[in-house]
Design goal:
This protein is of the alpha+beta class. The protein is 25% helix and 19% strand. The strands form ten sheets. Strands 1, 2, 24, 25, 26, 27, 28, 29, 30 and 31 form a ten-stranded mixed β-sheet that branches. Strands 3, 4, 5, 6, 7, 8, 9, 10, 22 and 23 form a ten-stranded mixed β-sheet that branches. α16 crosses α19 (722-730) and α20 packs across α21. The model is unreliable at 10-25, 121-131, 517-582, 596-613, 710-719 and 1106-1168 (pLDDT under 50).
Length: 1180
C-alpha cells in the first residue's frame, strides 16, 4: 500500500474499517446464453427473404475478385452461385430444405473462423458482411439445422449450426471439422470416426436423416461428393450451405422450400444493381438477369453528385462539389408498370449494389410537391452509394445516420441533392408535355417497348452503362425554402446509347392566331415572333431541340455490348468536374494495380491417406460483439429508450394493468447529469436511477448476454440484451449499481475490457454493507485483486485512480440518500462520456437529456399519472395525445393474425383474434400534414413505428389534400401481440407463418376506421378547406391544455365514441368500409378540444317558383318567394338542442369517473323511424 501511495502521489487513504463492516464477495462474470443468442439471431431480420439476401451477399463477396471494380477488367465466366432444393430424390416434393453453392476466387478461411461470432473474415468494410454475423444469424432465421461444407482443393470442411446444440448456460456451440482427402473425395471413414467421438455430430446427423443415422450420413456424403461433381470439379475453392427444413417465409400461402426459392428468383434482380453480366447466378436451374432497371425505366438518366457528410450545403463554400465529400450516382426514369405511382426512392450501397432502403412515396422527404398527381407518373429515383460511405445497420435493412457525429447533416444533404435532381428531371419532361395527364399517357404508351426488353440480351451494367446525361446543369441555393434547385432551360440533354426506351416527343404545336397585332406564342419554350397574321405550319420555321440537333439515327443501335465497350466521351457536366487535388484516372489505375494483394500461397500437399482433424469450436469475439451492439440502434436516443423500458418494467407492479388498482406515488425514474461539482459544464455523462417493486436479480444474471430476467414476454426487454447493447451504443464505459436492502452490487460494461479472442467480459461484484453504506474498504480490496476494475476506475477518474474511486463511492452513497433512502430496491446506471447523438450540433450530455425530455412523452402512452419521471429535475407528463388532439375519438377492434378478413366468417369480430385500441383526432400543429400513423405496443405503450404519410398503405385517397388536415391515427396494441424486432424499432410480420395476412388485416381495419372518422367530419364541414380552417382555429385551446392538470391516461380515458358503427366488405376494391349516417357520436368528457360546428346555412333563393333547399339534409319547402331569415323557422340541430353548458367542464377527473350521459350529435335531423331523445334516454 505504501508503494502504491508513493506512485499515486495522493493523500493517504482512510484506514481500513473493521472486518464486520463491509466485505466483498468473489468477482462474478456474466455468461453468454447460447440459446438466447440463437433465438435473437432469428429475429434480427424483418422477413426470411432478407436473411437469405445476407447469405447471398457473402456468396458474392467471396466469388467476385477485387479487380471486378475496374471498368477495364474483363471478368471470366468463372463466377457461379447456385440456389436449389435439398432433396434426396428427383421428386421436388421430397425437398426438405434449400442449398446455396458458390465458388471463391481465393482460399476459404478455416470454418472455425467463419463460424466465430462477431468476427468477420473480411477486412474490407466496403463489402457486405463486415459484422461477422451474416452466416450465423441468417441460418438461425431460416432453419433450425444447417450444415456448411467447404472445399480448399483436397481439404474439406464441415460445420454445423443447430438450435438443438445450444444451451442457456454456455456460449453458442458451433462445431466444425476439417478433412484431408484423396482425389476421390471419400469421407465416409472420417465422418464415421467423428460421429463415434462426437455426440453433437451424431445428434445432428440423425436429425438430418429424420431419426435414421445412416440415412443422414448418406445425405452428408452426397453433399461432399457434390463439391467435386459437374461444374464444381474444376473449382479449387467451393462453399456450400444446406438449410434443413426451411422455416415459413411470412407468406400467407407458404407451401414449402420451392415456393420460397421462387420468391427469391423474383426478388433478387431488383435487390442488386452491380452484379456483372458474367456472374452466373441460377435459382431452381434458371439463370438470373440483373439488368432490372435498365430494362424497365423509360428515359433512364444518370447524374453524378458529391455528398458532404460533415458540412451542411447551406453553409459550406464548396457546397455544390465538396472537396471532402464522396461521389454517388443518381439515376432517374419513369416506370410504366406503375404510371400512377408516386415518386419512389431506392437507395443502394456497398460493392454489390445491395438495396438498403426503399420508400414508396418519397415526395415529402425530398422536398417535392406532394399534392394531387405531382411527381406521380411512375417517377423512380435510384441512388447508388457505390463506394459504401452511407452508415448502415448491421443487418443492412436501414440507414443509420444516428451513428455519425454529424449524421443529421449527412442525411439532410443527401435528401436535398436527391430532391434537386428529381425536381429538375421531372420538370424537364413535364414542360415538354405541358400537362401531367399527357406525361402519364406517354409513359403508359411505352409499356410494349418495355416488355420487349424482357427477352433482349443486355451486356451493360447500371454502373458502367452510357445513359442520358444533362450538359451544363447548375444549381442554386434557396435558403428561404430550404431547397436546392436548378433553373430550367439552360441545359442540354445528351441521349445515351444504353437508354433503351424513350418517351414519344410531342409534335410542335400550331402557332396561335394573333390578336390585334400581338405576337404568336410557341409553347413550351416561350419564343414569340411578331407578325400580322398566323402563317401556315409549312411557313413556320421548325422548332429545334436537343433531340433534333442529335437525331437518334446518329447513335449506335442498341444490341449486344460487352462490359468493356467504350462510349463516346461525354463533355463535362455538373458532376464530372474533378475535385481539388484529384488523381488522374490513369494514375489511379496504376496505384490500384500496385495495391492489389495476391492470393495467399497454396498449402503444402497433404498426406495420401484421408484422416480427420480435431474438432474445432467457434469462438465469440467479445470486441466484435460490443461494436455490433453499438450499431443495433439507428440513433442513440433509441438506445436510451431501451434502458427506459427496463426501468419501467422494473418499477411498475403487475397490478398496474388493473383499471381498479390505485397506484401509489412510489414509482420513480430519474435521468440526470453525472457531474463531480454543481457546475453543469463539468458533467461527463448521464445517470438513470429507478426504484423496483421487487428484489433485483444478481448482476451476474442482469449482465448475462441474451438471457432475460423477465419471464413475461409482454414486457419490453424480453431479449436479454437491452442493458448491454444500449450501454455500448451510448458510452464506452458504463457502471451499474444495485441496492437490495443492505446488499449492494457493482457491474462494469467497458469496451477496454473486450478482446477479439474471448467472449464479452462483463464483471460484477456484490457487497454486504451496514446502513451507512460505506464500501471504501471493499472497493479498495477489489481494485487490488482485479486489474480490470482498476483500469476502469482509473478511466472514470480521467487517469486518476483515487478520483475515480471517490466518484464510485459517491454513487453508492446516492443509493441511500434523499428519496432513495426509504427504498429497498434501487437500480442506478452511469454512462461515462456519452457518445454523440447524431445531431448536427451536439454540445454534450445536457443537450442529449434535453432531447430525451422532449421525445419521451410522445414515445409512451401507458405511463400512469402517478409515475414520477424526471429529466434534469423536471417532471414529465405523458398525456401527450390527450392534450394535443382535437375530437379525440376511441375505437376498439379485433385483429385476426391467421385468417384474412376477406375469407373468415367472423371477419368483423374474430373469435381467435386479439383486441386493439384505435384513436383518431386532428393535430392543429400540423394542419397541413397528411394522415400520420403511430403504432404502440407492449405493456408500457412504447412507440414502435411511425409513418408520416400513411394514406397509401391504409387504402385512403392520397391525392391533393385528402386526409391532409392533420389527421392522426394511433393504434395501441395494449396486450403486446404484434411481432417486433429485438430492438423494438420495427414490426416483424415476416417472423410469423401467416405474417402477411396479419399485416393486411391490421392495415385494412386501420384504413376502415380512419376513412369513416375523416368522412364524418368532412361531411359536417362540407369542404376540406373549411375543415382545415376549424382545425387551425383550435390551436389556442390546445395550447391552454399544456398547463392543465390531467389525471386520465389514454388507455382508461373516456373519449368520443361512435354508437352503432357497422362495416361492410368491399372485395372489389380490397377495402373495409362503413356507410355514413347510420351511427351516433357520443361525446366523451375526456376529449378536451372539439371542433367548432358550422352554422346552419341560409336558405337559397328560389328560382321560378322552385323550392328552396336547406343543405345538407336535402329537405325542401314549396314557396312563392324566399322569406327573410327572421321569418324562416330556425333550424335546430343536436348542438342547439343541447348547449355545451350542459356538459361538465373539463378539469380534474379520477380514473374511475362516471361521465354524464351525452346527447345525440351526429344527425341534425332524425332519420326515418328514429326514436325521440326522451324515449331513448328512458330505454338507456
Amino acid at each position: 500500500q505504501q508503494q502504491q501511495q508513493q506512485q499515486r502521489q495522493q493523500p493517504p487513504p482512510l484506514p481500513p474499517p473493521p472486518p464486520p463492516r463491509a466485505h466483498p464477495r468473489q468477482e462474478e462474470l456474466a455468461l453468454v446464453n447460447g440459446l438466447g443468442m440463437w433465438r435473437s439471431w432469428g429475429r434480427n431480420f424483418t422477413s426470411p427473404i432478407l436473411a437469405l439476401l445476407d447469405l447471398f451477399d457473402n456468396a458474392m463477396d467471396a466469388t467476385m475478385p477485387p479487380e471486378i471494380d475496374d471498368p477495364n477488367y474483363k471478368p471470366s465466366e468463372n463466377m457461379m452461385v447456385r440456389l436449389q432444393l435439398d432433396k434426396e430424390t428427383d421428386n421436388e416434393r421430397d425437398a426438405t430444405g434449400i442449398m446455396m453453392m458458390n465458388n471463391c476466387y481465393r482460399r476459404i478461411p478455416p470454418l472455425v473462423e467463419v463460424l466465430s461470432i462477431h468476427k468477420s473474415c473480411k477486412g474490407d468494410t466496403d463489402q457486405i458482411g463486415e459484422n461477422g454475423v451474416g452466416v450465423k444469424q441468417a441460418c438461425a432465421a431460416l432453419s433450425e439445422l444447417s450444415f456448411v461444407f467447404t472445399k480448399n482443393r483436397n481439404e474439406l470442411g464441415l460445420g454445423i449450426l443447430a438450435e438443438i446444440l445450444q444451451t442457456p448456460t454456455e456460449a453458442p456451440y458451433l462445431p466444425s471439422w476439417n478433412f484431408i482427402t484423396e482425389q476421390d473425395g471419400s469421407v465416409h471413414y472420417a465422418l464415421t470416426q467423428r460421429i463415434n467421438d462426437s455426440e453433437a455430430l451424431e445428434e445432428c446427423v440423425k436429425a438430418y436423416g429424420d431419426g435414421d443415422l445412416e440415412r443422414g450420413l448418406d445425405r452428408l456424403e452426397k453433399h461432399f461428393r457434390r463439391l467435386n461433381t459437374g461444374v464444381w470439379a474444376d473449382q479449387d475453392y467451393v462453399f456450400l450451405m444446406v438449410m434443413h427444413k426451411i422455416r415459413h417465409t411470412g407468406s400467407d400461402a407458404f407451401k414449402g422450400p420451392k415456393q420460397f426459392l421462387e420468391m427469391v428468383h423474383s426478388e433478387l434482380p431488383r435487390n442488386y444493381i452491380h452484379i456483372p453480366v458474367e456472374f452466373d447466378v441460377q435459382v431452381l436451374g434458371k439463370r438470373l438477369d440483373f439488368q432490372y432497371w435498365q430494362r424497365r425505366l423509360i428515359e433512364l438518366t444518370k447524374f453524378q453528385s458529391r455528398l458532404d457528410p460533415e458540412n451542411s450545403w447551406k453553409d459550406a463554400k464548396d457546397w455544390d462539389w465538396p472537396s471532402k465529400g464522396y461521389s454517388v450516382n443518381i439515376y432517374l426514369g419513369f416506370d410504366p408498370y406503375r404510371s400512377n405511382g408516386k415518386a419512389s426512392l431506392y437507395i443502394y450501397s456497398r460493392r454489390s449494389g445491395r438495396l438498403i432502403k426503399s420508400t414508396e412515396d418519397a415526395r415529402h422527404i425530398l422536398g417535392l410537391s406532394s399534392g394531387g398527381t405531382d411527381y406521380a407518373q411512375g417517377l423512380t429515383i435510384i441512388m447508388d452509394d457505390v463506394h459504401g460511405n452511407l452508415p448502415l445497420t448491421p443487418t443492412k435493412q436501414d440507414l443509420a445516420f444516428g451513428h455519425e457525429q454529424n449524421g443529421k447533416i449527412h442525411e439532410l444533404n443527401m435528401l436535398a441533392w436527391l430532391g434537386a435532381y428529381s425536381h429538375y428531371y421531372y420538370q424537364y419532361y413535364l414542360s415538354m408535355h405541358r400537362k401531367k395527364g399527357n406525361l402519364r399517357t406517354v409513359v403508359m404508351d411505352q409499356v410494349k417497348d418495355v416488355r420487349k426488353n424482357a427477352t433482349r440480351e443486355i451486356r451493360f451494367s447500371l454502373l458502367h452503362g452510357n445513359f442520358n446525361t444533362f450538359i451544363g446543369l447548375q444549381f442554386r441555393q434557396n435558403i428561404k425554402y430550404d431547397k436546392i434547385r436548378s433553373p430550367m432551360g439552360k441545359t442540354e440533354l445528351r441521349p445515351g446509347q444504353d437508354t433503351l426506351v424513350r418517351l414519344q416527343r410531342p409534335a410542335p404545336p400550331e402557332p396561335t392566331a394573333p390578336k390585334r397585332g400581338r405576337a404568336s406564342v410557341y409553347p413550351p419554350n416561350g419564343l414569340a415572333m411578331r407578325m400580322e397574321s398566323a402563317p401556315s405550319q409549312q411557313q413556320q420555321p421548325p422548332r429545334t431541340n436537343a433531340y433534333q440537333q442529335h437525331p437518334t439515327a446518329a447513335y449506335p443501335q442498341h444490341g449486344h455490348y460487352s462490359m468493356a465497350h467504350q462510349p463516346v466521351q461525354p463533355p463535362l457536366t455538373h458532376a464530372t468536374y474533378p475535385p481539388p487535388g484529384a488523381i488522374p484516372p490513369q494514375q489511379q489505375q496504376q496505384q490500384q494495380q500496385q495495391q492489389r494483394q495476391q492470393p495467399p500461397p497454396l498449402p503444402p500437399p497433404p498426406p495420401p491417406r484421408a484422416h480427420p482433424r480435431q474438432e474445432e469450436l467457434a469462438l465469440v469475439n467479445g470486441l466484435g460483439m460490443w461494436r455490433s451492439w453499438g450499431r443495433n440502434f439507428t440513433s442513440p436516443i433509441l438506445a436510451l429508450l431501451d434502458l427506459f423500458d427496463n426501468a419501467m418494467d422494473a418499477t411498475m407492479p403487475p397490478e398496474i394493468d388493473d383499471p381498479n388498482y390505485k397506484p401509489s406515488e412510489n414509482m420513480m425514474v430519474r435521468l440526470q447529469l453525472d457531474k463531480e461539482t454543481d457546475n453543469e459544464r463539468d458533467a461527463t455523462g448521464i445517470m438513470m436511477m429507478n426504484n423496483c417493486y421487487r428484489r433485483i436479480p444478481p448482476l451476474v444474471e442482469v449482465l448475462s448476454i441474451h438471457k432475460s430476467c423477465k419471464g413475461d414476454t409482454d414486457q419490453i426487454g424480453e431479449n436479454g440484451v437491452g442493458v448491454k447493447q444500449a450501454c455500448a451504443a451510448l458510452s464506452e464505459l458504463s457502471f451499474v449499481f444495485t441496492k437490495n436492502r443492505n446488499e449492494l452490487g457493482l457491474g462494469i460494461l467497458a469496451e477496454i475490457l473486450q478482446t477479439p479472442t474471448e467472449a464479452p467480459y462483463l464483471p460484477s461484484w456484490n457487497f454486504i454493507t451496514e446502513q451507512d453504506g460505506s464500501v471504501h474498504y471493499a472497493l479498495t480490496q477489489r481494485i487490488n485483486d482485479s486489474e480490470a476494475l482498476e483500469e476502469c476506475v482509473k478511466a472514470y477518474g480521467d487517469g486518476d485512480l483515487e478520483r475515480g474511486l471517490d466518484r464510485l463511492e459517491k454513487h453508492f452513497r446516492r443509493l441511500n440518500t434523499g428519496v432513495w433512502a426509504d427504498q429497498d430496491y434501487v437500480f442506478l446506471m452511469v454512462m461515462h462520456k456519452i457518445r454523440h447523438t447524431g445531431s448536427d450540433a451536439f454540445k454534450g450530455p445536457k443537450q442529449f437529456l434535453e432531447m430525451v425530455h422532449s421525445e419521451l412523452p410522445r414515445n409512451y402512452i401507458h405511463i400512469p399519472v402517478e409515475f414520477d419521471v424526471q429529466v434534469l429535475g423536471k417532471r414529465l407528463d405523458f398525456q401527450y395525445w390527450q392534450r394535443r388532439l382535437i375530437e379525440l375519438t376511441k375505437f376498439q377492434s379485433r385483429l385476426d393474425p391467421e385468417n384474412s378478413w376477406k375469407d373468415a366468417k367472423d371477419w368483423d369480430w374474430p373469435s381467435k383474434g386479439y383486441s386493439v385500441n384505435i384513436y383518431l383526432g386532428f393535430d392543429p400543429y400540423r394542419s397541413n400534414g397528411k394522415a400520420s400513423l403511430y403504432i404502440y405496443s407492449r405493456r408500457s405503450g412504447r412507440l414502435i413505428k411511425s409513418t408520416e404519410d400513411a394514406r397509401h398503405i391504409l387504402g385512403l385517397s392520397s391525392g391533393g389534400t385528402d386526409y391532409a388536415q392533420g389527421l392522426t391515427i394511433i393504434m395501441d396494441d395494449v396486450h403486446g401481440n404484434l411481432p417486433l424486432t429485438p430492438t423494438k424499432q420495427d414490426l416483424a410480420f415476416g417472423h410469423e407463418q401467416n405474417g402477411k395476412i396479419h399485416e393486411l388485416n391490421m392495415l385494412a381495419w386501420l384504413g376502415a376506421y380512419s376513412h369513416y372518422y375523416y368522412q364524418y367530419y368532412l361531411s359536417m364541414h362540407r369542404k376540406k378547406g373549411n375543415l382545415r380552417t376549424v382545425v387551425m382555429d383550435q390551436v389556442k385551446d390546445v395550447r391552454k391544455n399544456a398547463t392543465r392538470e390531467i389525471r386520465f391516461s389514454l388507455l382508461h380515458g373516456n373519449f368520443n365514441t361512435f354508437i352503432g358503427l357497422q362495416f361492410r366488405q368491399n372485395i372489389k376494391y380490397d377495402k373495409i368500409r362503413s356507410p355514413m349516417g347510420k351511427t351516433e357520436l357520443r361525446p366523451g368528457q375526456d376529449t378536451l378540444v372539439r371542433l367548432q360546428r358550422p352554422a346552419p346555412p341560409e336558405p337559397t333563393a328560389p328560382k321560378r317558383g322552385r323550392a328552396s333547399v336547406y343543405p345538407p339534409n336535402g329537405l325542401a319547402m314549396r314557396m312563392e318567394s324566399a322569406p327573410s331569415q327572421q321569418q324562416q323557422p330556425p333550424r335546430t340541430n343536436a348542438y342547439q338542442q343541447h348547449p355545451t353548458a350542459a356538459y361538465p367542464q373539463h378539469g380534474h377527473y379520477s380514473m374511475a369517473h362516471q361521465p354524464v350521459q351525452p346527447p345525440l350529435t351526429h344527425a341534425t335531423y332524425p332519420p326515418p323511424g328514429a326514436i325521440p331523445p326522451q324515449q331513448q334516454q328512458q330505454q338507456q
